[in-house]
Write a structure and sequence with these properties.
The protein has 436 residues and is an all-alpha fold. The protein contains 16 helices and no strands. The longest helix is centred in the middle third of the chain and has 51 residues. The two termini are 31 Å apart.
């Protein structure tokens, strides 16, 4: 039943169903692209470069994207970015059918696609509070996490089975078909738009307005002390966690085949599905921040386990723990933001949060490929310095073991940091919360 303010969980669920299929299609094509890159190069560096191309547009253009989300029609922003992204995929399919696609071409295409996602993400996230009532925000955010978890569970298995049959071009055609349904759900649904006062001068000088918005939103976020500190800590969390994600495909493909990689990513998806389901059914925790840090500590432990052995069972066990609570943590963070920040500023503030959380990720992208291909993999090969030490005796030697060492180092750093913040949050639980 439609609420007087135009809010309806049914409207959100309808849009979510389209986004679910679109995300699933994108995950299928992304999996195929990962296998294709490794087949062409056999190294981790192309994965790191592609990740860098995906993250830089978000960091550079997020201030402008946040202002667009609050000052422009969010529905039109979502539809336009979806349409152009589909056009990019059509170009990629044409290149594949013509046998003209080269590894270097993937990078600018990914950068353009990421640019579009940078503008779409805050527009979609900021639309959620306009579609559902506050007491259902956690459920809606949990469903968004569920969408990501499901694509991680279903897409790799489907893509791993279909890739030998259809090739990369077939997987991208599936992605395009999923886009059509997603676009339709947005097109026929009315998304309420908050009123934001924008002068004619501001409209003509969108870049300067966006930079001013970013500065004001940063100062606004900084005034929320606990929230601001938490966001800064997430930057380091993303640094370590994304290095592990970048190197996961090269590690598995260097040891096994695309089918095993599909199973491994499906295990990751199952874990995230469970975490997303927990986010939709569990009550909000009493101490948001302690819960976030405590659960992220388990993510670090999972990373350590994943690096201990080249056996797929050990790696997948670590991946399961690594992924399990990510959707739940993300749900808590998004819900805190949506309840704390005024709706007319939400897009801009979420952009600031995104930039702060991701600012260290380009460094992790640059380091991951270099450390894997040029440092730790050679060190762990037979005859390498670490291979002849107790490290090699404990972890084994050969392909993939250098990446295993990187997993262990990053996991230990992540777990140690989150434990420190966890105990700090418990100590401050009784203090006035000026940050949330």
């Amino acid at each position: 039943m439609m609420k007087s303010e135009g809010k309806s969980f049914g409207k959100f669920a309808f849009i979510w169903s389209g986004q679910f299929l679109s995300v699933l299609g994108s995950a299928i094509s992304s999996f195929g692209l990962s296998v294709w890159l490794f087949e062409k190069t056999g190294e981790a560096t192309p994965f790191a470069i592609s990740f860098l191309c995906a993250i830089l547009p978000s960091l550079l253009l997020s201030p402008l994207a946040g202002s667009f989300a609050d000052r422009k029609n969010r529905k039109k922003v979502i539809m336009l970015t979806d349409s152009v992204d589909a056009l990019l995929k059509v170009i990629l399919v044409i290149l594949l059918f013509a046998n003209k696609l080269q590894v270097w071409m993937v990078y600018p295409l990914m950068a353009l696609s990421s640019t579009l996602g940078t503008f779409q993400s805050p527009a979609f996230s900021a639309s959620i509070p306009m579609l559902v009532e506050e007491n259902k925000l956690a459920r809606a955010n949990g469903m968004c996490q569920l969408s990501g978890a499901a694509q991680n569970m279903i897409a790799p298995v489907a893509a791993g089975a279909l890739y030998p049959l259809l090739g990369l071009k077939g997987l991208f055609l599936i992605d395009l078909f999923s886009y059509v349904f997603a676009f339709s759900t947005i097109a026929v649904t009315k998304i309420p738009q908050p009123v934001v006062q924008t002068s004619e001068a501001e409209k003509k000088k969108m870049l300067s307005t966006s930079l001013r918005d970013f500065k004001e939103s940063f100062l606004y976020l900084r005034s929320k002390t606990k929230l601001f500190r938490a966001v800064l800590s997430f930057s380091f969390v993303n640094f370590t966690a994304n290095m592990a994600l970048i190197l996961f495909s090269p590690m598995i493909l260097s040891l096994y085949d695309a089918g095993t990689l599909g199973v491994g990513e499906a295990v990751m998806g199952i874990a995230m599905m469970i975490g997303a389901m927990l986010a939709t059914v569990l009550k909000a925790p009493k101490n948001d921040y302690a819960t976030v840090y405590g659960l992220t500590t388990i993510t670090g432990v999972g990373m350590i386990i994943g690096g201990l052995s080249p056996h797929w069972g050990v790696i997948f066990t670590g991946v399961f723990l690594f992924s399990l609570f990510v959707p739940y943590v993300n749900t808590i963070v998004h819900t805190v933001l949506q309840k704390t920040v005024e709706k007319e500023m939400l897009g801009r503030v979420m952009t600031v949060v995104s930039v702060l959380c991701q600012m260290a990720m380009p460094v992790s992208a640059v380091l991951s490929g270099f450390l894997a291909d040029r440092v730790f993999e050679p060190l762990m090969m037979p005859g390498g310095a670490l291979a002849q030490s107790w490290v090699g005796q404990l972890l084994g030697t050969g392909v993939g073991r250098g990446i295993g060492v990187i997993y262990i180092i990053n996991g230990a750093m992540l777990a140690a940091l989150c434990l420190c913040f966890f105990f700090r949050s418990l100590k401050k639980e009784q203090q006035p919360d000026i940050g949330a």
